[in-house]
Every structure is written in C-alpha cells, then in structure tokens.
Amino acid sequence: MKLFDVYPLYDVTPVAAQGIEVTDDNGQKYLDFYGGHAVISIGHTHPHYVSSLKEQLDKIGFYSNSIQNPLQRKMANKLGELSGCNDYSLFLCNSGAEANENALKMASFHTGKSKVIAFKNGFHGRTSAAVAATDNPSINAPLNQQQEVSFVALNDFEAFQNTIEGDSFCAVILEPIQGVGGLDEPTTEFFQFVAEKCKEHQVVLIADEVQSGFGRSGKFFAYQHHNIQPDIITIAKGMGNGFPVGGVLIHDSFKASYGLLGTTFGGNHLACAAVLAVLDVMEQEALVQNADALGHYVKSKTSELPEIKNVKGRGLMIGLEFDFEVAALRKALIHNQHMFTGGAKNKNLLRILPALNITKDHIDLLFEGLKKELS
C-alpha cells in the first residue's frame, strides 16, 4: 500500500531531536524554528516530558471515558491555575479541529441556532463545521458547504455590526492571532466590540487558541492581551508537545449533560501525562515570560535586515513579511543554513514558531542564517 499523496515534502528525514535541534538520517543537525506548526512548546524530548510519558506508559496508557481518570482532574486544575481560567470547565479531545468542532456544536446546542460568523484568512481545521468556518474554498468540500458561515474582514466594525444583526447566529469564532492566515490580529478595540456585540445578541464567542495558546503569545492565552472573556476557548498543538491532544474550555454558564459531547481517545492517560508535563515545564522554566521577552528580542533584531518590511504577531508567534514570496528562502534556509521555518497563506510571510524555551543565542543564529541567504 502507498501513502495518499496530500503533502508536499522537503527531502529531510528526521530521526532524532533534542531541544530545538533535529537530526536527520544522514547525521545532519537542523535548528527548528517552526516546531511542527507550533506544536513543540517545551522542546523536543524534554527530559521531564519523556520521563513522565514513560512512567505513565508503565502503569496504564489508555482506557475509555467510562471510568474514573484522576489525571484528567489533576490536569484541569493545573491548567486552570496557570491560565487563570478557573471559571471554565474542560472537555478533552484529540486535535484542534476536533476542539473547534465541539466548540461550534456546543454553541449551537446552547443557542438553538446554527449560523456562524468567521473571519477572512481564518483557519479552524479540516473537519465538517471547522473547515466550513475556514476561509479556504480549496479544502471546503460540497458536504462542508452545507454549513452557513458568514466571513467578515478583521477589524471591520461596520461589516461585523451589519452581519451580526438579526437572530440567526450561534457563534462567532476568532483567532486572537491568525496562524495559517498570516499572523494578522484583531485590534483590542475590535475584539472588545465583537465581545460586546456577541453578548448583546446572545451569540457564543469562541476564541480559537489552538495555535496561539499555551504561552506562545507571551500570555497564557492570546485573547488575554485584550481584556475580554470568551465563552469558549479551544486548545491543542502546544498543549501536548507532540502528543495528539486537544481541549475545549467551556464557561461555567453553560450546562453539561450526559452524552452532550463525547470522544473515544480524548483525555486518555498518556495524553494527560503529556499535558501535565508541559504545564510543569512551562511553570518551572517561566516559559510564558520567556516567550514574551524573546518576542521583543526578535522584533529588535529585524532592524538588522532591511529586506523585512513588516513584523506581525506576538511572543514566539512571529511573522516576518518580505516584499517577495518566501518559498525559495525557506528552502534555502533548510538546505544551506539547516534551519526549519514556516510559511503561511500570505506567500510573503515567514513564520517563526519555535519552542518557548529557546534563547537569545538561538535567535541570533536565525538572523545570521537569514543574513547569509539575503546577502
């Protein structure tokens, strides 16, 4: 059997990794400034992470959600403590798409309505409602197009006001920092306006923190830069440092009932051990603060490269925008400088999404590599 060919692949085969260093099958080492789409939050094979998973695997790796799993409660308590979101309840699943799917479903249950407002260049996943709320027609099959979604430009107050008027929407879903779309953000004034209008029209506000959450923006959640409170928060990617796990934080004003949401693998013992290890390291190594500090350092370094026309994002969720398409630059960085970086829907944008425990020395190496390829 062959693999279904849906991924364009670089000719690199990683076989080992440590921190932000990845080693391929030829022994070549690479610096990872992309973290596999912002998934690697505490570094590859962090010792505490590895030992936690090994220890848990020796005990029990999986059982269904039909039994008690104290690790789920322990993890929820730790997450609430570090994020400041103790007035939410946690539903665990397996991915960002599944988290957004359940968030949209919960909003529809809660309001009795079905239409969704999403934002241009937003990305929320590839499953049914999540992909319908994603601004990319090429991955939106006819089956998904049965969902009713209205797309509005970020920071367009009038368009949002005109769209939300009426009585048909169950949810507004919004990335505090767009990931795939190219690191654009709502302004604080716009985010607060959206939150106010959602409350006024009894529409559920979903903050998609799948990529921007777990400290990446320099706060635990990126919406916390704007002094608003979403009804639902979705999480995944960095929460498991590579172990497949996602979650939905649902405000305590929502009522739970048996069977309302469900999953086979979500919240299994290994997943909980992975997330607990990530939270331990984030707390012990002050990674949210490090992300904030190094985000400012990255922005200060961009003055050394006149080719960079704009800097987007916050913390260690950074986009470097050029006046040319960056595909060739990314390829050169891999093959010549041995550095992984990312692209975006904006073809001129280089995405920087490293582990949150990188250092200024690592950032210096990135800019040295960029200077060599741009000279």
From TrEMBL:
Transferase is among the record's keywords: yes
Matching Pfam families: Aminotran_3
Keyword Transferase included in the entry's annotation: yes
Keyword set, alphabetical order: Aminotransferase, Pyridoxal phosphate, Transferase
GO molecular function: transaminase activity
SUPFAM superfamilies for this protein: PLP-dependent transferases
Cofactor(s) the record lists: pyridoxal 5'-phosphate
Segments crossing the lipid bilayer: none
CDD domains, sorted: OAT_like
Alphabetized PANTHER family for the sequence: ACETYLORNITHINE AMINOTRANSFERASE, MITOCHONDRIAL, AMINOTRANSFERASE CLASS III
Protein family: Belongs to the class-III pyridoxal-phosphate-dependent aminotransferase family.
Protein name according to UniProt: Aminotransferase class III-fold pyridoxal phosphate-dependent enzyme
Lineage: Bacteria, Pseudomonadati, Bacteroidota, Flavobacteriia, Flavobacteriales
